[in-house]
Each structure stands twice: as C-alpha cells, then as structure tokens.
Amino acid sequence: PRYKRLGGFLMKVATATAWAERLTGRDLNPVDNRPTIYTTILERVRQYRVNFRPVGETMDDGYMVITQSARFKGYKDMDSSLIPPFKEGEREAIARQLLAEE
Q1: CB-count exposure of residue 86 (10 Å: 0-12, 13-18, 19+)
Q2: Is the CB of residue 52 less than 8 Å from the CB of residue 66?
C-alpha cells in the first residue's frame, strides 16, 4: 500500500551527487557518500520549508525535492493517471529557482 502522495521534483542520483559536490566543494561517490549527499541537500532546502529524500524501490531510483505531500490510499505500481496531481504553488517556484541557480 501507498499512504502518501508526494509532489515536487525528481532527481537522478547523478544530479543529486553533482549538486552536493557543488555545495560541499569536494568529490563525492554516489554510493559511499549517500548520507553526505542526503544531509547536504536536505540542509540546503529545509530553510525553504521543502524536504528532500531518496525515492523509489531501489537505491538507484533517485531522490526527490518534496514540496507537497498528502494522505492517499494507493498501491505500488498503480496507474499514474489514477493519482490526483498537485497544483504548483509558491514552494515549487522557490524550489525551481533554487535548482536552476545551483
């Protein structure tokens, strides 16, 4: 079962790694430095009332900058057309600008 739906921006592991490298000023291995990547980006986006976390079924699926979440009664691999979309708001605009700048 899926109890929440998330809205925001999906990010590949390579993209998140590159962003964390720019923020820390050092080279990071996407596997060995997974905790550093996560905490570095989370600390950066939290000030904008946005969350960040790994998403997907495997460690290689990627990350998400989460701007919205809501309770939801769903299930794994359900048709995405059955999931109601979020409307973009102020947090998405801030996150989009932050991602473009960094």
Answers
A1: middle
A2: yes
Residue 76: band (very low, low, confident or very high) from pLDDT cuts 50, 70, 90 = confident
Task: Report whether 91 contacts 68 (CB < 8 A).
Answer: yes
Residue 41: predicted pLDDT? 96
Please state, in angstroms and rounded to a whole number, the distance separating the CA atoms of residues 45 and 27. Answer: 20
Report the amino acid identity of residue 10: L
Tokens read off for 76: 């794994």
Cβ 28 vs Cβ 18: under 8 Å: no
> To which residue do tokens 């969350």 refer?
51
The predicted model scores a pTM of 0.82
Cα–Cα distance measured from residue 48 to residue 91, given in angstroms and rounded to the nearest whole number: 7
